[in-house]
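We close this part of the discussion by returning to an individual protein. In the encoding step, the backbone of a single protein was reduced to a row of integers, each denoting a local shape. The sequence in question and its structure tokens are set out directly beneath this paragraph.
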Amino acid sequence: MNYPNGITKNTTHHHISYKNRGMDLEGDLNITNEYYRNIDRAYIYKKPTPIKIVNVDYQSRSLATIKEAYFQEPSTTDYNGIYKGKYIDFEAKETKSHTSFHLGNIHKHQIKHLENVIRHGGIAFLIIRFSTLDQTYFLKATDLLDFISHNNRKSIPLSYFQKKGYLIKHKLNPRLDYLEFVDQILEVNHE
């Protein structure tokens, strides 16, 4: 197509692939949380990883480069914030497995943290993406803890997520509306 001033536009249609649209769970959650904040629905943020900087090269103020750093303490979970007056805390993980989520992906101190959040009245959960299946599940931390206490398995089968969890549908806005499942937890706790 030819436009004024000699501008041309190629009108050839390109095939759009949606194959990798769900490959970055953290990116999807960050976009979702930004959307929640923008519409004043919830204030949930990605927690920074606590590091201690040991050595910095100061070539100039604007070009400072961290040369050496280490993790100051084990991080707890990925996200936290507030929704409807309740503290929210959750871990987000991806797996390439078609059949299960390996429990080695969640550390003991993270499990203890989720237990503490629940004990103090907060809402704790996991968001697990089976990336090769392009399926993302919301699983209450209480169901995670129940699974761990009643099984000797080293992984949680996909069927457990399908039975106990909630499939989060991909949308435009919010991209992963996990708060719809937090609302269900709040309704049950309110009854």
